[in-house]
């Protein structure tokens, strides 16, 4: 009777054994906007019309009405936003942050926590650099502006879809 309990416990421990936290939210904010001297949480709530617009622009479901958004400032000047999200890799969540400029273009993508046993290569700076300057309408698709990584196919696809969704949210709600 003890064996099933032991296997269940072992499975729970082993599934989280691969989790690696690379950055905290605060570290990601500073990495994305090093010139910022303050950050303000700016939770974002999408209404039904905005959800439809995001889905139309991104080509993926808006997924949630509530988004964790942080505005970055240098003195009184808005530098941009950091939007926090989680997507499924193959089985586990990938936590990441997307830095957006006020024009809704991507400034930077940071992987905060990676919990899968494979595919951590998405943390590679060269892969993440592909997102810089792109918008929801320009090249945020694996194979069409974003390269795939062998062995990290699902992680690449899901993070790319997530970044495209966030860029669409920025275009609909945050663009100045």
3D architecture notes:
This protein has 176 residues and is of the alpha+beta class. 35% of the residues lie in helices and 28% in strands. The protein has five helices and nine strands. The chain has helices at residues 2-16, 25-32, 48-58, 125-129, 153-174; strands spanning 20-21, 38-41, 44-45, 66-74, 77-88, 93-100, 106-114, 141-142, 145-146. The strands form two sheets. Strands 1, 2, 3, 4, 5, 6 and 7 form a seven-stranded antiparallel β-sheet that branches. It has a two-stranded parallel ribbon with strand order 8-9. Strand 4 and strand 5 form a beta hairpin. Helix 3 packs across helix 5 (153-174). The radius of gyration is 17 Å and the shape is globular. It starts with a helix and ends with a helix. Mean pLDDT is 90; it is low at 1-17.
Overall pLDDT score: 90
Number of helices: 5
Q: What percentage of residues falls in helices of 4 or more residues? A: 25-40%
Give me the strand/helix succession.
HEHEEHEEEEHEEH
Identify the overall geometry: globular
Residue runs with pLDDT of under 50 for 5 or more positions: 1-17
Q: Look at the helices and sheets and give the structural class.
A: alpha+beta
Strand content: 25-35%
Number of strands: 9
Distance between the termini: 62 Å
Q: Give the biggest sheet.
A: 7 strands, antiparallel
Radius of gyration (CA) equals 17 Å
